[in-house]
Amino acid sequence: MPFARLAAATTPTAHLGLGLAAVGRPGYLTLDREVDLPPSRSVEALRERTFELLDAAYASGVRYLDVARSYGRSEEFLADWLHARPDIRDVVVGSKWGYTYTAAWRTDVEGPHEVKDHSAAAYARQRAETAEQLGDRLDLYQIHSVTPESPALTDRELHARLGELAAEGVTVGLSVSGPRQAAAIRAALDVSVDGQPLFRTVQATYNLFETSAGPALAEAHDAGLTVLVKEGMANGRLAAAHAPAALREVADETGLGCDAVALAAVLRQPWAGVVLSGAATPVQLVSNLHAAAVDLDDEQVTRLAGLVEEPVAYWERRGRLPWH
């Protein structure tokens, strides 16, 4: 399993990864993108920014890189970076299928810039597209944003095709989203092909505001799955400019940024395998990576626990964030 390479890493950022959702397309629902991204949102401008982030991440010891079919040109940008640096062979590459990017590199499209389809036909189409971009560099392929009602949890034809992919040596996983993440995770644990569990990884949203998936993620970890955490910064709501008072106070006490403290709170979970940074600038990335140096005491952890929101309210607020 490719994630064994991460476990064997000795750098202090071995359990921090980099996701390219924020820089693979010109519009996304993260706060302050108008400040974080270059004035030009051209393909070449974001390709250059992606290279800067990947170079900084690799130099800092990050070895897991996360993209998706719906993240605009993220697979393409990552493939170009890997091609330009052929000596880099020790990174683990994960991508996702199940959403199609529909904004045509525009920022003025109202509403979401992607459409979900978890059918076997969509898998076949997007698997071919991913193979064209990443070839044999793909280590992990995840179903994107599974919810309890997703047909991906019951479609036997799809399961058989994913089983074939696993037999080829690509790890099969899923990401989950929405207020019922825990139910989706538990349903996924029951999916098997030829008597063997199909999913070997699960990626979920978990942060100081939204912790409802925690018990199910612990169960997944105990079942042998690698847990990846996305949106540890709550789409920018935990960054310094927007952070609640309790987080700012703890950050001041540690001498590090609100982002580092927020990610450190996720890293301390015993089931967390890889926690993703969604940084849009190299400066943000370096600050995120300081999470590995944060040592929270019990009293600070208790104060931060007071920030938890009710899941439905959290996801409704997330759904109202504009695609900047």
UniProtKB/TrEMBL annotation:
<protein>
    <submittedName>
        <fullName>L-fuco-beta-pyranose dehydrogenase</fullName>
        <ecNumber>1.1.1.122</ecNumber>
    </submittedName>
</protein>
<keyword id="KW-0560">Oxidoreductase</keyword>
<dbReference type="InterPro" id="IPR023210">
    <property type="entry name" value="NADP_OxRdtase_dom"/>
</dbReference>
<dbReference type="Pfam" id="PF00248">
    <property type="entry name" value="Aldo_ket_red"/>
</dbReference>
<feature type="domain" description="NADP-dependent oxidoreductase">
    <location>
        <begin position="47"/>
        <end position="307"/>
    </location>
</feature>
<dbReference type="InterPro" id="IPR053135">
    <property type="entry name" value="AKR2_Oxidoreductase"/>
</dbReference>
<dbReference type="InterPro" id="IPR036812">
    <property type="entry name" value="NAD(P)_OxRdtase_dom_sf"/>
</dbReference>
<dbReference type="GO" id="GO:0047834">
    <property type="term" value="F:D-threo-aldose 1-dehydrogenase activity"/>
</dbReference>
